Amino acid sequence: MAGRITLTMIKPDAVADGHTGKIVDMIIGAGYKIQAMKLTRLSKEKAEEFYAIHKERSFFGELVAFMTEGPIVAAILEKDNAVESFRNLIGATDPAKAAPGTIRNLFAKSIEANAVHGSDSADNAAIEGNFFFSQMERP
Ligand code: CMP
Fold it and tell me: How high is the pLDDT of residue 128?
């Protein structure tokens, strides 16, 4: 199962700008099944935990501040080869480098306010899915 799921967040910039519906539509249109989804908000502690792998990076403080500034939508998505195919759908981390038609190309404002997150490995997808969702929330 692990290789068939990825975890996405629609980040505070895209939620605040009203892009949630368009992004979810693109995800469904690309063939993903939504296993679980919620509108929520990260506390400083939870954002630091989610992004702990980046805690030594120069942008960590800004990243945590940005990710806590408003609501996000978290979702577990299911499809064959989910992690890699979803990263192709969202495009490069830096929207200036994201391919035309990708979610970040269409909706991201900057490398920080980059509209969506996608897991970078099957192992992290499993960890990140469990971070946001209990067993009851993922039928
Ligand atoms: P994400 O895929 O959520 O994973 C880590 C996040 O850190 C990344 O998207 C960006 O939003 C952010 N990030 C990566 N590099 C930088 C950077 N150089 N400056 C600011 N934020 C960054």
Answer: 98
Residues 6+ apart with CB under 8 A from 91: 97, 98, 99, 102, 103, 104, 105
User: pLDDT digits over 58-99, tens only?
Assistant: 999 999 999 999 999 999 999 999 999 999 999 999 999 999
Residue 136 CA to ligand 1 center (angstroms) comes to: 30
> Which ligand 1 atom is the nearest neighbour of the CA of 118?
2
Q: Are 134 and 74 in contact (CB under 8 A)?
A: no
112 lines ligand 1 (CB under 6 A): yes
Collect all residues with Cβ–Cβ distance below 8 Å to 127 and sequence separation of at least 6. Answer: none
Q: Which of 49, 56, 63 to mutate to test the pocket of ligand 1 (most atoms within 8 A of CB)?
A: 63
Is the C-beta atom of 92 inside 6 A of ligand 1? no
Asked whether residue 2 carries a pLDDT value surpassing 80, the answer given is no
Give pTM, 2 decimals: 0.96
Looking at residue 113, what DSSP letter applies? S
